[in-house]
Design a protein that fits this description.
2 domains; single chain; alpha+beta; lipopolysaccharide transport protein A fold; about 350 residues
Length: about 350
């Protein structure tokens, strides 16, 4: 498995950031001119001593402007400072120094929003660089220092971890689109043991070491050597351990009697439903024959079929059969009565 070496993008980006921040520091320092006596034009409130005190606007000799709060001729409180080169600061001041929360817009399009202490970026802040990269984390004396997250706009990669005096240092994770590296960093480079975690489901453990050839050249040459070339040495490749929740299934023998009765009732309901469906589907043939016959007068046989299956015809035949049975029954009873009378007459004659 090849070494995904994309850490180089950090070095190029860091160089651009350093240049941008150096220019920005010069821009910020130009505010100090107003710290001297009352310079430039001022329009605003003053105290009894004639000092700039309260709300006011100032036009400085160098072309910068300030609109905000003053206290004893010093910028103090909330205000907006505009530089003649296009930069501006909107935030809090304390004795002419940026102090508290503020937003600084730089001429190159970059921006810092966060905490300031004594004119320095200090505390938590978010910096958007001119090339689109972003940093969100801790600052100390204008440097990225502590824990922070740096996002590279061009590649979408992200560094999450420690910083020392503006450099990537300490435990961190460098996240790319389809893999990530976890380990230690020093001066912006990974060092020592670490591991690559790939989205395909495996891990590659190893360490970053300095090339033996580079070491030999450094010993022979007395001149300042070039930055060390680090190489990744893989030691082990393992699969990721995926956790799957287990579902406990109840054996059929352990099913409760109530569940068994419910299952039996459901089976009977299904059978009744199937029987009802079958009964609905089995229709007498005469219904179809009658409808067909009513719609087709050109066939002579439809009249015969209609008569055979007419309900009135069946009713008449049943009535005639019933009357015949009753007549036979009455005749038998009359015959029995007559025979009984004859027997009684014969008995009387014999006496």
């Amino acid at each position: 498995m090849s070494d995904p070496s994309s850490e180089g993008e950090a070095e190029e980006s860091e160089t651009e950031e350093t240049e941008t921040e150096t220019e920005s520091e010069g821009t910020e320092d130009s505010e100090a001119e107003e710290a001297e006596a009352d310079l430039g034009e001022y329009d605003g409130e003053r105290n009894s001593a004639g000092e700039r005190h309260g709300r006011g606007k100032a036009q400085l000799p160098n072309g910068d402007t300030y609109d905000g709060e003053y206290e004893h001729s010093l910028r103090n409180g909330q205000g907006t400072y505009r530089f003649k080169n296009g930069a501006r600061y909107i935030g809090q001041y304390l004795q002419n120094k940026k102090h508290g929360h503020g937003v600084f817009f730089y001429p190159d399009g970059s921006k810092y929003e966060g905490s300031w202490v004594n004119d320095q970026k200090h505390g938590y802040g978010e910096y958007t660089y001119a090339n689109g990269d972003t940093y969100a984390g801790e600052w100390f004396n204008n440097d990225r220092h502590g824990q922070g997250t740096y996002v590279y706009k061009d590649t979408g990669s992200k560094y999450v971890g420690g910083w020392v005096n503006g450099n990537q240092e300490g435990e961190a994770e460098l996240i790319h689109l389809n893999h990530r590296y976890r380990g230690k960093f020093l001066n912006g480079n990974p060092v020592g043991q670490g591991k690559y975690v790939f989205d395909i489901g495996c891990e590659q453990q190893g360490e970053y070491i300095q090339s033996a050839e580079d070491k030999g050249e450094e010993e022979e040459e007395e001149e300042p050597s070039l930055p060390a070339v680090l190489k990744w040495k893989a030691t082990e490749i393992t699969e990721l351990t995926l956790w799957t929740p287990s579902v406990k299934k109840t054996p059929p023998s352990e099913a409760s009697p109530a569940a068994a009765e419910a299952a039996a009732a459901a089976g009977e309901a299904v059978e009744e439903t199937e029987g009802a469906v079958e009964g609905e589907e089995t229709m007498p043939a005469n219904a179809v024959t009658d409808e067909t016959a009513d719609g087709r007068d050109d066939e002579p046989s439809h009249e015969v079929s209609s008569e055979v299956f007419r309900p009135e015809k069946h009713a008449e035949e049943e009535d005639e059969g019933s009357r015949g049975e009753e007549e036979n029954k009455e005749a038998q009873e009359d015959q029995g009565t007559a025979n009984l009378e004859d027997k009684e007459d014969e008995s009387q004659e014999a006496e």
